[in-house]
């Protein structure tokens, strides 16, 4: 980088001699050169061979869907309906609000509360175990009642 700085000084030629504060100019050019170099640098990190694949991590969560019918049947109708329509069937929350005669904010609140109750019920019914980051580690599959 120091070499690049000196090359920039040499390219200035006679103009460098007319710079009012050469020291300040050198510091500014050095700072800009460093910024340019860091911007262009492409640092890579080798990944370990034993890194778990994302498919393995999501497999536990994907199999957890087997508990979903049981948990949905144990929720009250309003919660079950909100989750089924919005989360499972992909209905927009605005459409859900219109269908149920609610304001959009009321519908969003209802859906959020239903999700929280479903999570709590699923944690108990399927004995879901979470890690410190909140990711599913394990669960006990339960058949629908």
Give a description of the structure.
With 145 residues, this protein is mainly alpha-helical. It has 2 domains: 39 residues; 85 residues, Orthogonal Bundle (Arc Repressor Mutant, subunit A). Helix content is 64%, strand content 3%. It has 8 helices and 2 strands; from the N terminus they run H-H-H-H-H-H-H-H-E-E. The protein has a two-stranded antiparallel ribbon. Helix 1 crosses helix 3, helix 5 packs across helix 8 and helix 6 packs across helix 8. It is elongated, with a radius of gyration of 30 Å. The model has no long low-confidence stretch (mean pLDDT 83).
Share of helical residues = 55-70%
CATH class group of the largest domain: Mainly Alpha
**CATH level 4 superfamily of the largest domain:** Winged helix-like DNA-binding domain superfamily/Winged helix DNA-binding domain
Overall strand count? 2
Relative strand content: under 5%
Tally of contiguous helical segments: 8
The CATH architecture category of the largest domain equals: Orthogonal Bundle
Q: Return the string of H and E elements.
A: HHHHHHHHEE
Uncertain segments are: none
Span from first to last CA? 70 Å
CA radius of gyration? 30 Å
How many distinct domains? 2
- Remind me, CATH topology of the largest domain? Arc Repressor Mutant, subunit A
Widest sheet, order of strands: 1-2
Shape: elongated
